[in-house]
Amino acid sequence: MVNKTVNNIQDIFLNNARKNRTNLTVHLLNGFQIKGIVKGFDNFTVILECDENMMLIYKHSISTITPEKPIPFINN
């Protein structure tokens, strides 16, 4: 059986935001908004660079991510 790697929309979105260094606003479930650039992510967390600081944000606390400009949805 062939093992295929399948990227989900979330991974494609975050990876393209990271590659393009797109400014994002991360809206948390508690109402806070954090602005920054994605530096990395995994299945459970996102690392955001905000004002030269790094923040580790758990994905389960994120409501919405709004990019400053459109992010291409090409899987590359």
From TrEMBL:
Molecular function via GO: RNA binding
Function field: RNA chaperone that binds small regulatory RNA (sRNAs) and mRNAs to facilitate mRNA translational regulation in response to envelope stress, environmental stress and changes in metabolite concentrations. Also binds with high specificity to tRNAs.
Coiled-coil segments: none
Protein name: RNA-binding protein Hfq
A single BP term in Gene Ontology: regulation of RNA stability
UniProt keywords, alphabetically: RNA-binding, Stress response
Annotated source species: Clostridium butyricum
Keyword RNA-binding: yes
Subunit description: Homohexamer.
SUPFAM superfamilies, A to Z: Sm-like ribonucleoproteins
InterPro entries according to UniProt: Hfq (IPR005001), LSM_dom_sf (IPR010920), Sm (IPR047575)
GO cellular component: cytosol
Family, per entry: Belongs to the Hfq family.
Annotated Sm domain residues: 11-71
